[in-house]
Every structure is written in C-alpha cells, then in structure tokens.
Amino acid sequence: MGTKPHPTHIGTMAKLGDWIDPQPHGIFVKPAGVWIDPSQPVDRALVTHGHADHARGGHGAVWATPETLAIMDARYGAQSAHPVAYGEQIAFGDVAVRFVPAGHVLGSAQIVLDHRGERIIVSGDYKRRADPTCAPFEPVKCDVFITEATFGLPVFRHPETGDEIDKLTAALRANPTRCVLVGAYALGKAQRVIAELRARGFDDPIYLHGALQKLCDLYIAHGVPLGELRPATEASKADLMGRIVLAPPSALGDRWSRRLPDPITAMASGWMRVRQRAVQRGVELPLILSDHADWDELTSTLLEIAPQEVWVTHGREEALVHWCATHQIRAKALALHGYEDEDD
Ligand SMILES: [Zn+2]
Ligand SMILES: [Zn+2]
C-alpha cells in the first residue's frame, strides 16, 4: 500500500464525477451531504424507489417521489418525508437534484444530479418496456450514468409481455376445475400482472393473498385501476376453480396454498428465464415478466444516453463493463452491497 506513485498525467484536473463517493452501503453525494438508496440509516437519504433493497426505514429525512414515500409509509410507518414530484427541481448546496421516471415500479425515479457543469444520473432500477402501472423511463443525457445490471448478460432477453400473459390465460381456460396460483412480489410485480391481464381484456375477479392487499390498494389510490380484486382467504375451493390467485412467492409452497383447488403454480419473474430457478421453486408455469431492463434494453439505453462513463451498481456487472469497453465508454463496477432481487 502506498509504495506506488499515483500517475501524474491527470495533473490537478478534477476527475469526472469525483464529487460522488460510491460506498458499499450507498452512494454519497459529497457536496450535497446526502446519500442515495443507503442500506443503513443515515441523516439524509434520497430514495429512487420503494423496493426494500433501496428504501430502508430509519433515516433522519427522506426525499423521494410522493408515491415512493407512500410505499415507505405503508412499510415502515411515517417518515420525515420531503416529497419531490417528477421534474421538480430542488437543491442541496450547489447540487441541483431532479427526479425523473425510471419505468420500474410506481413512483420509481432516476435521480439527476448537476454540479459544477457535470451531470450524473443514478438510475436505481429501471426498465424500458411499457408498464400500465407506472410512468415510462425518461432518457436524459448525462456525463456519468450509474446503472443496475440485474439482467446484464446477453442471454437475458425478456419475451413480449403479452405472450407471457396469454400463457397464463390459456392455462386457465384449459383447466376449468383448477386455479392458477401466480407468485408475484408484493410491490410492483403483483400490480403489473393484474394490470397487464386487464389490458388484455381479462375482466374476471382476481383473488389475492392477504399480503398483497395493502400495496394493491395503494396503487389503486394512486390512480392505477386494477379491476375487481377479492381476498382469496374468504373464498371456498369451488369459488376459486377457474380463477387466478396471486400470492407472494414465499406462499407458493406453504400451507396457505392447500386451500386452493389443485393449483397450477406459476411465477412472474425475469428469473423464470432460468429453468433451474423455476424447477427449484416447483413452478409449473414460468412467466418471464421482469421490471428490470434486459440486455438489449441496458445496452440500447447506454447508446441512447451516450454517457462518458458508466458505473454499475449491482447485478451481472462484468459483461456490461466489457460491453462498454468495446463501445468506447469508460465503465467500472461499484460492487454495492445489499441490492438484491426482491424486485425481479
Ligand atoms: Zn433493486
Ligand atoms: Zn427495484
């Protein structure tokens, strides 16, 4: 340590983005004195979206979109909250901050930071596909784009959403005495499955595990129509024949599902692309439905935004960093801790 001299050709010029300090437990914006998506409690946090790996409880004060704050309230109780609407400009010292849509889940935002003529964007999690439950990703030019890489391998190419939804309704029609039990994460995925079914004309009531009710109600309250939802717990086996039932993935194999009429077990997740994951979970009907950018979306977004540098927060970093190198974009992996797949 310390024996090798640092290269001197950089001179005294400030390095691009050196006012941002990526640490294992979050991204610290030094001149603003704020953290982005910290995994530990901090005095001042900017939060990209409500998934538990990005939004934790216990911060002194939180800046986020009104939807994200509502989600955090529902999960952690009332926060010391500062709502920031999409497009609204706020400032911390001489750092200008703006939240723009990330297309990931309700309220999800990229955080655009401007300081001393440099623009850095922290994208949080994002996708480019249409999603009836949230505002679409808004591409913004920047110098440094800080991106996720959850599905950052060329093998990950998500199929058409409509085709996956059609598989679900086809299984239902083919098995009128059974039900289809869909495992879906409580924030984002459950509401998207429902909204995509509605968009394809499926008007039957959809039955919910109790753990999904609160966030479905929150989406409805924020103007996302989900059609008729009924609690699965109050329904008889006969009621549930030929019905779609949604539950958190953890409930797929447990006692709770025994109340259901011979369920066809489905799971809605980008990971259903990986056969082994479907088999491990005992999933009969894998639905490849992701709220993250796939390989093509990641790389086409980088071409569109054309940043000078790409920093990769989490996921399969190596392939994306390599892709950047072959496209004359400087890139590095940040190896942040604690961002996991609640939200795949
Ligand atoms: Zn995440
Ligand atoms: Zn997420």
Can you walk through the features of this model?
- The protein is α/β, with parallel strands linked by helices and 344 residues long.
- It contains 8 helices and 19 strands.
- It has helices at 66-76, 161-174, 189-199, 210-221, 237-240, 275-280, 295-305, 317-326; strands spanning 20-23, 26-29, 34-36, 44-46, 61-64, 81-83, 89-92, 95-101, 109-115, 118-122, 144-149, 180-183, 206-208, 229-231, 244-247, 264-268, 285-287, 309-315, 330-333.
- The strands form 3 sheets. A 7-stranded mixed sheet has the order 7-8-9-10-11-18-19, with helices on one face. A 6-stranded mixed sheet has the order 1-2-3-4-5-6. Strands 14-13-15-12-16-17 form a 6-stranded parallel sheet.
- The longest helix is centred in the middle third of the chain and has 14 residues, at 161-174.
- The chain is globular and about 70 Å long.
- Residues 1-5 and 7-11 have low confidence and may be disordered.
- The structure holds zinc ion (2 copies).
- One zinc ion binds at residues 49, 51, 54, 104, 125, 343.
Task: Describe, in short, the structure shown.
Helices cover 23% and strands 24% of the residues. The chain is built from 8 helices and 19 strands. Strands 7-8-9-10-11-18-19 form a 7-stranded mixed β-sheet, with helices on one face. Strands 1-2-3-4-5-6 form a 6-stranded mixed β-sheet. A 6-stranded parallel β-sheet has the order 14-13-15-12-16-17.
